[in-house]
Amino acid sequence: MTKKLTEKGISRRNILKGGAAATGVALGSGAITGFPTIWAQNIKDVTLRQFGTGVSNLNEVAQKVKEDLGFTLEMTALDSDAVTQRAATQPDSFDIADIEYWICKKVWPTGNLQAMDTTKIKNYDKIVGIFKSGKLTPESTIAQGTAPHTVGFVDGPDGNTFATEETGWMTLIPTIYNADTLGIRPDLIGRPIGSWTELLNPEFKGKASILDISSIGIMDAAMVCEAMGEIQYGDKGNMTREEIDKTMAIFTEAKKNGQFRAFWKTFDESVNLMASGEVIIQSMWSPAITAVKSRGIPCVYQPLKEGYRSWGGGIGLSKSLSGLELEAAYEYINWYLDGWVGGFLMRQGYYSAVPETSKNHMDENEWGYWFEGKEATGDITNPFGDVLAKAGETRDGGSFLERMGAVACWNAVMDENQYMVRKWNEFIAA
Amino acid sequence: MTDQTHLFIPVEKNDKKLSRGTRRQKGLPDAVSGWLLSLPLALVLLFFLVLPIAMIVVVSFWGATEFSIYPAFLFDNYEFLLTSPVTYQVFLNTVKYALITWAITLVLGFTVAYFLAFHVRSLTWQIVLFLLCTIPFWTSNIIRMISWIPFLGRNGIANSTLISMGVIDEPLEWLLFSDFSVILAFVHLYTLFMVVPIFNTMMRIDKSLIEAAYDNGASGFQTLTNVIIPLTKPGIMIGSIFVVTLVMGDFITVRFMSGSQKANVGRLISNDIALLQYPSAAATAVILLVTVILVIAILLRFVDIRKEL
């Protein structure tokens, strides 16, 4: 089932690359924006098919692309598993894959994606360090798991193995990322929550939930087990069989004791569980918290002392993309990093890969609240007009540096992935 | 009683003979026209039933990496499946759901059909009431199922009503995300599949048989057990096959109504597919197929549907 597109791909792309390089030299670096004038006539006919998880596949983005760039972007939103499946098995069904870094680790070896030339990315230098050297600040330590920079680069345009440092050939252009933690209903819990251990606290028996996406769920489970002091992991993002067994044993026991009300697989499920009060503490994603809040129900994205489980997504280009479509795709990427999308996403609680350009598209109050962790000076609304916070409130977890600086591990895919998946299935079936 | 039904069959046979006779006049030999007539269906079944199943069986022996599957002849998938205690637990659970749902839908379906066929006298009302049964089918399966969730939830209508009536003090937790809610949804979704075939066979029972039973001094219950139930057997069997196969093959009802907490075989398969483990999913599907065929074979031992139709 693995398709090898290399032979055809190479020649076509090499020619194209030569052409692109020549043009690049002719126009001078940074003059990539000159392309639209060359292609202006026919770029309107281009349609790029993008698919990805619901988080960043937003129709507003497609509309803005049409307005600003003139070509059509078709969006398909799928769940994480379906995204992986599609990227791995149906390379001809998409032009742009909006996937997470751990998915990239799984999918890249299929050869369905092509590396991107960073010299064609205008804001490459401004991309946050996490995606390049792996360090947020020069002093930062790199968290466990599939940290984005470990799968962010390949040796060359046709590299099949990941490089350990910046090579100029990027697998995914980072677009959106965040630090995840537990969501709670403060009104129904009524006391401070400060540790991952609370997920298995018998006090919340029948009122807890965890997400049923094995590769992410196992990380949340590991955060809990480590916080309980039950297991010391070598690397939570790459567990041994023994560590997996122990983790699943602890969670299976909790499940049999009725700790969990339900497991959720989609964003909407998590929102409904929380909003209806079926569940009062659970693994959750940032926009889900926002969705609960916008219904007028109190919900907190609780910072925990053990740190965050973080994830990052990026845009990858299909191997079959070439010519005008490929240029359009590069233009789309440059536009993506140019700030409008960043501002749009940051006002929903995500972070953008190039925060400084996003700043131009946010007002001072918004920037202060979302990025700097300052008190809001006026109402904070999301891009759809719902009020999320009032003056005087601060963001859960504080500033960008505080939140992204406290990442304990990244979403990951392990060497023992197949074993883990089977164990996870057993946990769900137990 | 079976003799009675046999009375109808010769008539049909005569019909067939007549039509065959007319065809022969046009000049095609019997054998050829017979083959030709069965050809389209045979082709459809070959391409859309036999080939896909053969493919599943073949793939179940293949190997898989994380993102691809490769042709091989391995027993790994079966070995893992048949040696894992979870598999047996899950199959047991699947059979449990099927049995309980079957029993409840049978009682409900038989009662509804009996009422429609024997208590409602006018054909108009029979049709009206029958259509009433189908109204839930105007919305999709999934919507019918999900609409139970706000009803049964901790702060749902059922719990708040019971609390305000003073029946319970604390909300009942087992109403939602439990075996109870799963089976409730199954019964809701599939009772009609039991009603329709039973009603159909009941309508074909010669009313004079019931009169005869009555004239011979049979009580209402005796008539039911000695006349109606035996004559309704084919309908019951068809309904049972519907319900059992639907429940055993389901995965989405179990996922939603149990809040992903319970598992049946369908969920095992869907999990495998989601994780690109097609060979393992295929192996599970083959085992499930064998199980379902066995169940149906056992069911068919009780009633020879072909003879009864």
- Arithmetic mean pLDDT of chain B: 86
Tally of structural domains of chain A: 3
According to DSSP, the number of beta strands of chain B is: 2
| Structural class designation of chain A | alpha/beta
Instruction: Give the termini distance of chain A in whole angstroms.
Output: 32 Å
Query: Whole-Å distance between the termini of chain B?
Result: 14 Å
Structural notes for this entry:
The complex is a heterodimer of chains A (430) and B (309). Chain A is of the alpha/beta class. Chain A is 38% helix and 17% strand. Chain A has 16 helices and 18 strands. In chain A, strand 16 and strand 17 (387-389) form a beta hairpin. Mean pLDDT of chain A is 85; it is low at 1-38. In chain B, helix 9 (179-203) packs across helix 11 and helix 11 (220-249) packs antiparallel against helix 14 (278-302). Chain B starts with a helix and ends with a helix. By secondary structure, chain B is an all-alpha fold. Chain B has a two-stranded antiparallel ribbon. Chain B is flat and about 70 Å long. The model of chain B is unreliable at 1-21 (pLDDT under 50). In chain B, a hairpin with a 4-residue loop joins strand 1 and strand 2. The A-B interface holds A 1-2, 81-82, 84-85, 88-89, 106-107, 109-110, 206, 209, 212, 214, 255, 260-265, 272-273, 276-278, 413, 417-418, 421-422, 425-426, 428-430 and B 66-70, 80, 84, 86, 89-90, 149-150, 153-155, 173, 176-177, 255, 258-261, 263, 267-268, 271-277.
Can you give me a brief rundown of this structure?
The complex is a heterodimer of chains A (about 425) and B (about 300). Chain A is of the alpha/beta class and about 425 residues long.
Key attributes of the depicted protein:
heterodimer; A: 430 residues; alpha/beta; D-Maltodextrin-Binding Protein, domain 2; nine-stranded mixed beta sheet; five-stranded mixed beta sheet; 16 helices; 18 strands; B: 309 residues; mainly alpha; MetI-like fold; 2 domains; two-stranded antiparallel sheet; 15 helices; disordered N terminus
